[in-house]
Design brief:
19% of the residues lie in helices and 18% in strands. By secondary structure, the chain is of the alpha/beta class. The protein is globular and about 45 Å long. The structure holds 6-phosphogluconic acid. GO terms for molecular function: 6-phosphogluconolactonase activity.
Length: 156
């Protein structure tokens, strides 16, 4: 378990967390992605906000485009707390397995847009940008969160 250093600023915490992950890769606790230098986690488990954010990657935020750093920081999160650190999309998309869990009707529009890309013409939601390059993505939705999806078979 690697905890976030909350005794430093967000930028320092992101650097410390990156260092910790690098150590885990050196000691082979965490694999390296086959196609890039990112860590390859066995499983990344994500919640999704009603706005479609995952991790602390919010819609239209520049952190969504971060492609150099494994872990980045933000100081202007639209949700409290404003200062956060987050895995970047390249790390999430390097995982062997990614699970996104969403429950409740407040997630229905974002689930539709992320999974089917249909809700509006805006840019893709962060959750819709989760596309593991060689891993598996599984969504876990309750019936309310899945209520706007078409053509899906649901298990009980
Ligand atoms: O501070 C945050 O960014 C949120 O707490 C968050 O990331 C959360 O995981 C989702 O909003 C889904 O949460 P629920 O599944 O509990 O609705």
């Amino acid at each position: 378990m690697t905890s976030i250093n909350d005794g430093v600023c967000a930028e320092g915490a992101a650097d410390d967390y990156t260092f910790a992950i690098r150590q885990l890769m050196r000691t082979r606790v965490v694999d390296v992605c086959d196609t890039c230098d990112c860590p390859k986690f066995d499983l990344i488990l994500l919640g999704m906000g009603p706005d479609g954010h995952v991790a602390s990657l919010f819609p239209n935020h520049p952190a969504l485009k971060e492609s150099d750093d494994w872990i980045t920081f933000i100081v202007d999160s639209p949700e409290s707390p404003p200062e956060r650190i987050t895995f970047t999309l390249p790390v999430i998309n390097s995982a062997a397995n990614v699970a996104i869990v969403a429950a409740g009707s407040s997630k229905a529009d974002a689930a539709l847009q992320a999974i089917e890309g249909k809700a509006d013409d805006g840019p893709p939601l962060p959750a819709g940008l989760v596309r593991p390059s060689s891993g598996k993505l599984v969504w876990f939705l309750d019936s309310e969160a899945a209520s706007k999806l078409g053509n899906y078979k649901f298990c009980d």
